[in-house]
Design goal:
Oligomer: single chain
Number of helices: 5
Number of strands: 5
Shape: globular
Helix content: 40-55%
Largest sheet: 5 strands, parallel
Length: about 120
């Protein structure tokens, strides 16, 4: 049985790129904002990993990470943050708040695949 990955990114093109490289090894589900992702999680769906953008409308990815890590039901879910910001302080903050990895955009999809496999396989 394939492990499940939840992708949260407001850009469908990013979700499609991730899907091209990961769908052969993982079951993927995509939402364009964290609020939809939270609703899906609250329905009882628990992925093995979440890949989340940081800058999104309605709710930022760092707020989503904070929600996950402060919720008993979801705090053990692995999270990779994607960001276009190359900020050392932001990277350190998110990793210390519970992100398993922080990957800069644009990213190499093959590198993402290796990082995902190291975390959940």
């Amino acid at each position: 049985m394939k492990k499940k990955i939840l992708i949260i990114d407001d850009k469908e093109s990013i979700a499609k790129i991730i899907s091209i490289y990961l769908s052969s090894d993982f079951d993927l589900i995509w939402f364009d904002n964290p609020i939809k992702g939270i609703a899906w999680l609250q329905e009882g769906n628990i992925p093995d990993l979440i890949i989340s953008d940081i800058k999104m409308p309605e709710m930022r990815g760092d707020e989503f990470l904070h929600y996950l890590k402060n919720n008993e039901l979801f705090k053990s879910i692995h999270v990779i943050m994607l960001s276009g910001e190359d900020s050392t302080s932001e990277r350190i903050r998110l990793l210390s708040e519970g992100a398993d990895d922080y990957i800069l955009k644009p990213f190499n999809p093959l590198e993402l695949k290796v990082r995902v496999k190291k975390i959940i396989q």
